From TrEMBL:
<dbReference type="InterPro" id="IPR050832">
    <property type="entry name" value="Bact_Acetyltransf"/>
</dbReference>
<dbReference type="GO" id="GO:0016747">
    <property type="term" value="F:acyltransferase activity, transferring groups other than amino-acyl groups"/>
</dbReference>
<keyword id="KW-0808">Transferase</keyword>
<dbReference type="Pfam" id="PF00583">
    <property type="entry name" value="Acetyltransf_1"/>
</dbReference>
<feature type="domain" description="N-acetyltransferase">
    <location>
        <begin position="6"/>
        <end position="160"/>
    </location>
</feature>
<dbReference type="InterPro" id="IPR000182">
    <property type="entry name" value="GNAT_dom"/>
</dbReference>
<keyword id="KW-0012">Acyltransferase</keyword>
<dbReference type="InterPro" id="IPR016181">
    <property type="entry name" value="Acyl_CoA_acyltransferase"/>
</dbReference>
<protein>
    <submittedName>
        <fullName>GNAT family N-acetyltransferase</fullName>
    </submittedName>
</protein>
C-alpha cells in the first residue's frame, strides 16, 4: 500500500462541511445531530483563539484527517501546560498511510512552540484502533474519564440536594431545589 502524498495545514473557515462528514462518519463523535451544526462556529472560535487549533490532513483538496488541539493546564493545581489532542480522526480509506502520524507531528510541533511539557490525547474508550496507534507512539493511559447526563446522575443521587455553592444560606433551600426534590420523591413512591 503506497503512502498518499498529503499536506497538514490549519483549518480554514470553509472546511466545516468536510470536517462534519469526517468527524461524524462513524457516529462516535457526538451522538447528536446538533453537534454537526456547531462545527462552523467552533472553527470561527478556533481561528480567533491562541489556545485552540484544528489541523487537517489534505489529499487532492479533500480533508482526509483532522485533530482538534487545545493548549491548557496539564492538571489542576499545576502550572505545567500540555497540548490536548481531541477528535483525532482519519478517513478509513487513508488509514495506515501516515496521516495520523502527520497530525500527531503537527500536535508535537505546536506543543514545542508553546514550550509545553506534555501531549495528552483524549480518545473514546472504544476506539480500539486509535488507542493502539497512540500506544505505539508511547502514549500511555493516565486517567479514566466517565461521562453521564446530569439528569441521569441526579436520579442516582440522594433526594436531599445540598445548597448550591454561593447559593442559599445554611438551613435554606432554593425553591427550584425543593420542587425538584418533591417531584423525585413522588416519582419514586409511585414506581414502588
Amino acid at each position: 500500500m503506497s503512502r498518499a502524498p498529503f499536506q497538514i495545514r490549519a483549518v480554514e473557515a470553509d472546511d466545516a462541511a468536510s470536517l462534519g462528514v469526517l468527524w461524524h462518519a462513524d457516529n462516535r463523535v457526538g451522538q447528536h445531530e446538533a453537534l454537526r451544526h456547531d462545527i462552523p462556529s467552533t472553527i470561527r472560535k478556533v481561528l480567533a483563539s491562541m489556545h485552540d487549533r484544528i489541523v487537517v490532513a489534505v489529499v487532492d483538496e479533500r480533508i482526509v484527517g483532522a485533530a482538534y488541539l487545545r493548549l491548557g493546564p496539564l492538571m489542576p493545581l499545576t502550572s505545567d501546560q500540555a497540548v490536548f489532542i481531541h477528535l483525532l480522526k482519519v478517513d478509513e480509506e487513508f488509514r495506515r498511510r501516515g496521516v495520523a502520524r502527520g497530525l500527531m507531528e503537527a500536535a508535537v510541533s505546536w506543543a514545542e512552540e508553546h514550550g509545553t511539557t506534555h501531549v495528552v490525547s483524549v480518545t473514546g474508550g472504544n476506539s480500539r484502533d486509535t488507542n493502539r496507534f497512540l500506544a505505539r507512539l508511547g502514549l500511555s493511559p493516565a486517567a479514566t474519564i466517565r461521562v453521564a447526563p446530569t439528569a441521569a446522575l441526579r436520579a442516582k443521587l440522594p433526594v436531599e440536594v445540598p445548597a448550591r455553592i454561593g447559593g442559599a444560606a445554611p438551613g435554606q433551600r432554593n425553591n427550584l431545589g425543593q420542587v425538584l426534590a418533591a417531584r423525585r420523591a413522588t416519582r419514586r413512591s409511585q414506581s414502588v
